[in-house]
Amino acid sequence: MHGPAMSGWLLMALCAVTGSYCLLRTRTGSEEERRTARAEALMGFGMAAMAVPAAAVAPPAWGWGVYAVLFGAAALRALWFSRRSGHHLHHLVGSSAMVYMALVMGRAGAGGHGGHAAHTMGSPGMAGAGGIPLLTGLLLVYYAVYVLRSGARLVPVTATVPGGPPSAGWGTRPELALACRLTMGIAMFAMLLTL
Question: What is the residue extent of each domain of the chain?
């Protein structure tokens, strides 16, 4: 490995590809499936942007505030739609985690990007480099459980219905949608670990 910059670039590429596939999924399926795909695409692209190593592109000081507002709005949207679907509760947790990471990295200063190098916080509200340790720990546990559950659900999925025709296209393959969710869960876990 070439240090934190290489892992940041790899994480950025993985999240961008995942976001792109989720964007492709917005063209097919029911309205609920398209809504879910849009939320997942936003999360994938947002995570990709946050993972760009600071050595390559130093974010402006106000950039973290933009992330916080954008994902705060996404969290409110997920809260609204969670009345219909339990999966939107996961989007609520994910968007809230993104707000949290943006606030922590914004307080850490311009160096708190991409590689998420250790920082000292001047604010008593955010203890240490990882923000609030209990909250960071709870988010890590949530994403560890989410990744394990998603991985277990991915194993038995097949691309075709027994006795039926193969899936119509890339946007309708359930195993790819599950793989994207698994990928974003792993990426979120990695970002929280290095916070």
Answer: 4-193
Lookup: tokens for 160: 């075709």
103 phi and psi, to 5 degrees? Answer: -65, -45
Residue-by-residue DSSP string for 79-147: HHHTTT-THHHHHHHHHHHHHHHHHHHHHH-TT-STT--------TTS-STTSSHHHHHHHHHHHHHHH
What's the pLDDT tens digit per position in 97-149? 999 999 998 887 644 444 444 333 333 344 445 689 999 999 999 999 999 99
How far CA 115 is from CA of 110, 122, 126, 160, in Å, comes to 12, 20, 19, 40
Angle 174-193/31-51 helices, nearest 10 degrees?
A: 30
- In angstroms, the CA 140 to CA 186 distance is 10
Q: Give the Cα separation of 108 and 186 in Å (integer).
A: 23
Could you give the count of Cα atoms lying within 13 Å of 174 in the half-sphere of its Cβ?
11
Q: In sequence order, what are the residues at sequence separation of 6 or more whose Cβ sits closer than 8 angstroms to the Cβ of residue 115? A: 3, 4, 5, 7, 8, 53, 54, 55, 194
- Alpha carbons 94 and 80: distance in angstroms, whole number: 15
